[in-house]
Amino acid sequence: MVQVTPFLLLLSLALVAPGLSAKKCVLTGTWTNDLGSNMTIEAVNGLGNFAGTYHTAVTATTNKIQRSPLQGSQHHVNQKSQPTFGFTVNWSFSDSVTVFTGQCFVDETGREVLKTMWLLRSWVNDLKDDWKATRVGINIFHRLRSQRE
Ligand SMILES: *[C@@H]1O[C@H](CO)[C@@H](O)[C@H](O)[C@H]1NC(C)=O
Ligand SMILES: *[C@@H]1O[C@H](CO)[C@@H](O)[C@H](O)[C@H]1NC(C)=O
Questions:
Q1: Which of 31, 70, 145, 148 qualifies as a cystine partner to 141, CB 3.0-4.6 A?
Q2: 17 belongs to a structural domain
Q3: What is the distance in A from the centroid of ligand 2 to the CA of 43?
Q4: Cα radius of gyration (the chain)
C-alpha cells in the first residue's frame, strides 16, 4: 500500500509534464509590452495572415497618440507551437511606419511571451535627413489579462 502513492505521483507527472511542454503560443488576443503599449491581434487565418490594432504608450512625434491598424503574417508551416511572425503598424497619427518581427514563446512557467524587434521609419522632408530616419528597438509582450483594451 505504501508504494502506491509514489507510483500515482509519477504517473500523474508523466501525464501532466508532456502537456505543459506541448502548450502552444497563440498570437490572437490582447498583449501589453515593457513600455505599456497594448495591441490586439485578431484571428490568424488559414494562410497565417492577421490584422489588429496597436495602441502605443510612446511616440517619437509630438502628435496625439491614436490607436493604429496593424497587418501581419505568422509562419504557419508545420503548425509550429512557437511560431515566428511579423507585422507592420501604419501609424494613424503620424507619417511613420513600424515593422515588428518576433517569435511567440511559451516560457518555463507556461506563460506566453512575444520576443520582438522593431524598426521605426519616420518621415523626413529631405534625402539629406535619411540617415537619421530609422530607429531600432526591442519589445517583450505578455498577454493582457485585465479589462478589454
Ligand atoms: C494598456 O492597457 C492597460 C490595462 O487596460 C491600461 O492601463 C493602459 O493605459 C493601456 N495602455 C495604452 C497605451 O493604452
Ligand atoms: C495607413 O494610415 C493612413 C493614415 O491613417 C491611411 O490614410 C491609410 O489608409 C492607411 N493604410 C492602411 C493599409 O491601413
A1: 31
A2: no
A3: 21
A4: 20
